[in-house]
Amino acid sequence: MLPELTADWWRFFYNGYSRDDVYFLPSKQTIRNDTSVLGTDNIIARNKAILAPVEKWISLGFPFSSDQLLRDTAKSRVDSMVRIEMQLDGVLNKAQRIMSPVFNLIINRDIHEPELGPKLIRKGKYKAVSDGWWLYLPPDSLDLGRHQLDTFASCAAGVISLRVKHTLQIV
After folding, report:
1. Using the 8-state DSSP alphabet, how is residue 25 labeled?
2. Domain that holds residue 60
3. Which residues, in sequence order, are bridge partners of residue 107?
4. 80 and 137 in contact (C-beta within 8 Å)?
5. Into how many domains does the chain fold?
6. Cα distances (angstroms) measured from residue 40 to each of 43, 114, 149, 153, 167
7. Which of 107, 132, 104 is nearest to 120 (CA)?
8. pTM of the model
9. How far apart are CA 171 and CA 165, in angstroms?
10. How far apart are CA 139 and CA 50, in angstroms?
């Protein structure tokens, strides 16, 4: 179930896809030397599960692209991220490493200056595989009220990093 949910998260990220049973926490594109922090405010029904990326990578290919090449590319990129940290309400938590199955993805906008690959990824239909570190919280796992989820990931050199601070209002 969780590998398929990570594929759905990418559909959310690129197209605004949503599910009735899972709340997808937002993130941002990882860009070299970007030290900015993404802050998000989220109002979440207590009966929804929550899926949050700590660090993630998606490999995009064409229908003829090898599934194994997509898997290997995603795995290699996530393997380079050696520092993975997550705190929920100030308490350290452990993220889960999850690789998605191969899935189809429609990207509704051009992606300019992706971290790797061509200078532009054109909107269109792609075959994809994702790998990453994720936090999954089942429904009813957080008490009503305000919670803070802080995530950080970085490569050894610190040139690639991603920091997100989520405020969660559970209602």
Report:
1. P
2. 2-170
3. 124
4. no
5. 1
6. 10, 22, 10, 17, 6
7. 107
8. 0.90
9. 19
10. 7
